[in-house]
Amino acid sequence: MSEPEWLVWAREIQAIAQTGLTFAKDPFDRERYTMLRTLAAKAMALGSGTPVQQIENLFAQQAGYATPKLEVRTGVFDADNRLLMVREVLDQNRWTVPGGWADVNLTASESAAKEVREETGYTVRITRLAMVLDRARQGHEPPEAFSITKLFFLGELTGGAPATSIETSEVRFFARNEIPHDLSTGRISRAQIDRLFAHHADLSLITEFD
Fold first, then answer.
1. How far apart are CA 153 and CA 113, in angstroms?
2. Beta-sheet pairing, 99-101 with 94-96
3. Under DSSP, is residue 42 helix (H, G, I), strand (E, B) or coil?
4. Which residue ranges does the record assign to the Nudix hydrolase domain (predicted)?
5. Cα separation of 117 and 68, whole Å?
């Protein structure tokens, strides 16, 4: 699935405006970039049905050179080759693999291990990077205002015990033929789950990207 053109254009205009406001010194240029940011907010508000002021406030919080945001997720398997999944509270308790935004002052793999520990109660050792994917190219729903790069790792269980958190309402392992249908599609897709199983089964597979 492809994203609507209004979203792609609004996102790109916002990125140009954000980067321009970061480097522009001339007050007239800054005024023009601010106008571009407002235009991007209006386009995104019109397409999404979100109040324009809410979008403008979101865009105004962004600073620096515009780059994709970084999300980390981890496929963790038990001795029976079952995949660890959690119910995501913020998405009506739908299922996903543990993960979230990468944290400042942590490496990507450290962030991935931290998310597993916080969301499931298990500790893991991150063993390999399976996929580096642009969220917009993967058919995730709903679409996001900003560009996002998703890193999918594999992790080896090292300890802990199942425990829910403020983010998760259930923690459970699933065999490949037991994967639930009510997935948190903004976070994970069935195709990505299938690829995690494939990478777990065949360690010779190279990292997938794009």
1. 9
2. unpaired
3. helix
4. 67-196
5. 25
92 CB neighbour count, 10 Å cutoff: 9
Q: pLDDT digits over 91-139, tens only?
A: 999 999 999 999 999 999 999 999 999 999 999 999 999 999 999 999 9
Cα distances (angstroms) measured from residue 191 to each of 9, 15, 118: 27, 29, 25
**What DSSP character marks residue 204?**
T
In this prediction, residues 83-96 reach a mean pLDDT of 98
Tell the CATH topology of 69-209: Nucleoside Triphosphate Pyrophosphohydrolase (3.90.79)
Q: Alpha-carbon distance 27 to 92, whole Å?
A: 46
Burial of 42 (0-12, 13-18, 19+ CB in 10 A): middle
